Amino acid sequence: MIASKAIAFVTALATAATLLVATALLATTVLAAAPANANTIDATPVPTPVTVDEAPTEIEPEPEQNPDQTIPSSCRGYTIMGEKSLWDSGLVIDPVSKQQIFIGNPINWRTNPTQSRSWPIYLHGLAWARGYVDDFLKTGNQDSLNKAIEIARSHDANVTKPSRAYQEAWSDHPVSLRLTTLACIAAVTPLPNDLQKMMGQLARWQMDDENYFRRHNHGLMQNMSLVRSGCQQAQQSWVNTAWRRMKDDFEFAVNASGVNNEQATGYAFFNWRAWEEALNEIEKCDLANIPPETREEFNRRLALLADFNAHATQPDGQMVPIGDTLVNRIGITDRTQLPTTAIYQDGYAFGRSSWQDPNAMHWSLRFGAKRKNHGHDDHLAVTYFADGTRVLIDGAHAGYDRNSDRAYLISKAAHNTPVVTGADASIAYEPGTSQLTSSYTDETRTVVTVRDKQPKKQKKPLRTRTLVVDYPSKTLVTFDRAAGPTKKGTKPATISVPWAFAPDFTVTSDQVGRVSAAHSNIERADKTPTLHALDPRSCQPLSIELSKGKAALGWRQLVETPRAVINGTQVLSIISPDAATVQCVVSNGTATLTVTDESGQTTSFLVDALNGLR
After folding, report:
1. What is the pTM of this model?
2. Please, is 601 exposed, middle or buried when counting C-beta atoms within 10 Å of its C-beta (0-12, 13-18, 19+)?
3. Contact 549/565 with Cβ under 8 angstroms?
4. Which of 191, 358, 402, 597 has its CA 20 to 30 A from that of 580?
């Protein structure tokens, strides 16, 4: 549910994406005779998957921009792996690291020079073979089509049965990519007998529910490959299986509010594009029957997911990197009719001071269900963007290597979230769930309060964060506190409130309870964001400790970041986009904050024990 008193959310039905245009099938005999019945699939036993300790995952590359509409949809997606002259020399581009990897001739199917968990997915997906098919379509060069078939045959001959050496070849995503590559070849010529047999083996492997990654983008990729190949080969059971799974999964993948279930803004964008494509694919298939009311509901939720992605996009056009999201993920910038604030009961709040101003302020707040899929331990975490640059940042994402960097970026240490310290630290509630307890928004201000949810049969200190955003002044204020249960009620717990600044800033302390952040770009030197820290009960400034943290810049790229850490039992943090000053006065238990910006404009906030921050 999305709450906004300023403007009602636009929930109009989104127009379905333009249907993909398929090219005419070319009847060409290649390398081996086609089977007598192209729709008869060999019944060779399906390999049993190798059990691994974790399902292989990957960084999703940016979707192909402006895909060529003149080629079959199953033949797209290869451009991220290079081009023909590169492949002819035995080199393939890794879509994640962007490195050229020599795979050899003949191909060494165990090639993994970077020891990446992502690269084998693309190697065993054979997507670059689709590029050879595309070259055949555009030039008529029979050698290119023969090369695509040779690559598929090489893989089939060397990686037929799962083993420890090839365990990542027989997991959900590479199998789905491989089946799509065979569908690409079959789109331009009848498959030779051996590749027809290979296609049937891959399809049956995917139809086994033991091999299906349900409620996840990998499962959607599996369904798309079954639809493409099943529709092409007139295999009704393949299409039926894919559509049954898609209907079952969609309710969880995109909920009624338009929130994706993978807990990462980058994957919300990826799933939006992928579900649009999958639905367009299945609608083109004569073997599928989608009731109009079902498609209408899919359209409604995908439209809301697109709105979510727009709200998660900063004024610079990049998505705020929540969860496993790269810092340069491009978002959606064309939905300026939306309200400036979006609060989702399912764990996200976003806001901005303007949709049109590139120097607008943007903020985010996380809470909700326990971490899963691509989520991080980021409950109660805040990000802040102002005047064209990130100021307070999330640790973001650097890849799926199982190492200390990955563990750090997932942990609370990489996020702007309060942490229980002191004597209560050993029983602090983490990781867990948190919930929205109240929210209000109007044209000038948003107030949101989120709180840890007490787990059953446990008594833990619970953190509460109230966030107030003033849009005209681009000022952000948080009020953090924690309390643990006792026999006579509750008692305050000591908390540590960290703030990670973008690596472009140098942070210095010029007085007790205040730090300033100077940007390394001389063109931004006129804007010096400030952080003030106060105890709201006394208006006394709180000491701010300066330290270093880490944040991701890209795949396997981490950089040091300045951190400002505040300790106390009740902590007020005031973040301003310039060298503002803060005055605080306590009267009758209510603290009044007056923030004065560089131009002399003032903004006031109130905080007390009864009503909190407002």
Report:
1. 0.86
2. exposed
3. no
4. 358
Report the distance separating Cα 517 and Cα 580, nearest Å. Answer: 12
Phi, psi of 116 (to 5 degrees): -90, 145
Distance CA 267, CA 322 (A): 10
Rounded CA-CA distance 340/311 in Å is 8
Task: Give per-residue pLDDT as tens, 143-195.
Answer: 999 999 999 999 999 997 666 667 889 999 999 999 999 999 999 999 999 99
Cα separation, 517 vs 578, in Å, equals 9
Asked whether the beta carbons of 531 and 544 are under 8 A apart, the reply is: yes
What residues contact residue 599 under an 8 Å CB cut-off, 6+ apart? none
Rounded to 10 degrees, the C-alpha dihedral 456/462/463/464 comes to 80
Identify any residues that bridge with 3 across adjacent strands, giving them in sequence order. 343
Q: What is the pLDDT of residues 530-572, one digit of tens each?
A: 999 999 999 999 999 999 999 999 888 999 999 999 999 999 9
Calculate the alpha carbon distances from 514 to 283, 509, 543, 580 in Å.
Answer: 59, 6, 8, 10
- By CB neighbour count within 10 A (0-12 exposed, 13-18 middle, 19+ buried), where does 445 fall? buried
d(CA 99, CA 116): 12
Angle between helix 142-158 and 172-186 (nearest 10): 150
Residues forming a β-bridge with 344: 2, 348
H/E segment holding residue 251: helix 236-253
Q: What is the CA radius of gyration of the chain?
A: 27
Q: Distance (Å, rounded) from C-alpha 177 to C-alpha 160?
A: 16
Tell me the backbone φ, ψ of residue 85, rounded to 5 degrees.
Answer: -60, -35
DSSP string, 404-462: HHHHHHHSGGGSS--EE-GGGGGG---S--EEEEEEEE-SSEEEEEEEEPPPTT----E
What distance in Å separates the CA atoms of residue 122 and residue 118, rounded to the nearest whole number? 7
Phi, psi of 185 (to 5 degrees): -60, -45
